Amino acid sequence: MTNTLPRIDNTPLRGDNTPLTKNTHTPLTGDEVHSFMKRFSLDINQFAKLLGVSPQAVRLWITGSRPFNETNSRLLRMFERRPSLMGEF
């Protein structure tokens, strides 16, 4: 029998419960951004409004045409740890 320990590192998770990234200072990939949107049932317009950007910027992030910046990556990691904070934005 294998014992599993509970998570204690507060690492943010993707929708499939795997960590977004090992380094919390690394910007998210387009796939990770899309996974976040899917996990929280956000469409492009809702996600853009949450971050205060245009829907076009979100499309560029998802396709990898524009890198997702570190500040927004940190914000999404915070939302994953405390989803209730999204309601305050």
Query: Gyration radius, to the nearest Å?
Result: 14 Å
Counting DSSP H or I runs of 4 or more residues, the number of helices is 4
User: Helix- and strand-based class?
Assistant: mainly alpha
Intertermini distance: 45 Å
What does this protein look like?
The chain has helices at residues 30-39, 44-51, 55-63, 70-81. It is mainly α. The longest helix has 12 residues, at 70-81. Mean pLDDT is 78; it is low at 1-9. It starts with 29 loop residues before the first helix and ends in an 8-residue tail after the last helix. It has a domain at 30-88. 44% of the residues lie in helices and 0% in strands. Helix 1 crosses helix 3 and helix 2 crosses helix 3.
Ordered list of secondary-structure elements with their pairings:
Blueprint: H1 30-39, H2 44-51, H3 55-63, H4 70-81
In a few lines, what is going on in this structure?
The chain is mainly α. The protein contains 4 helices and no strands. The chain has a domain of 59 residues.
